[in-house]
Amino acid sequence: MGFSPSFPERRKVYDFVNNSRALQVVSMRVRRIVAELAPNEVEFLPVTLVDHDKEVVSREHFIMNLLHRREVIDLEHSDVVRSSILKTEIQFVHGLALKQDIPPEGPHVFRPVHLRIRTFVDAVLRDALTQAGLTGCKFLPAHGWDGDED
Fold it and tell me: The Immunity MXAN-0049 protein domain covers which part of the protein (predicted)?
């Protein structure tokens, strides 16, 4: 994977690497934490990161492929716009509501049904990732989320 030539000044490698494909690209540090807490919930596919000059900047990053989806979104009470192409998927979120009866047992990390480009984590995994001081990610509450990244 290469850095975008549109932003040649952006050269820093983070623990979570944003990309245009909505893939979860993560560092070895993230992999260790997730593999310890959620060993059967993800698979890690190695990826080499190269900079704008095609020089290798990391061989210790991975695509974190989530293996679970959960039905957690309350579509009736959410303010969302469905995709015109993939009718079951959400394209825009203006106000997300979660179901009230989500069982506490379940995966620590997953993609919600209807919003497959987002990653949800439970409090256990969020706290472990936060305490590790990882870079390049931000955790936002899902319930009430308005679609903004901030």
Answer: 9-142
User: pLDDT category, 116, cuts 50, 70, 90?
Assistant: confident
Judged by DSSP in three states, 69 sits in strand
Say which amino acid occupies 15: D
Report strand pairing: 69-70 vs 109-112. parallel
Domain ranges of the chain: 16-131
Q: What is the pLDDT of residues 50-82, one digit of tens each?
A: 888 888 989 999 999 999 999 999 999 999 999
pTM of the model: 0.87
Burial class (CB in 10 A: 0-12, 13-18, 19+), 86: exposed
Comparing C-alpha atoms, which of 91, 92, 45 is closest to residue 67?
45
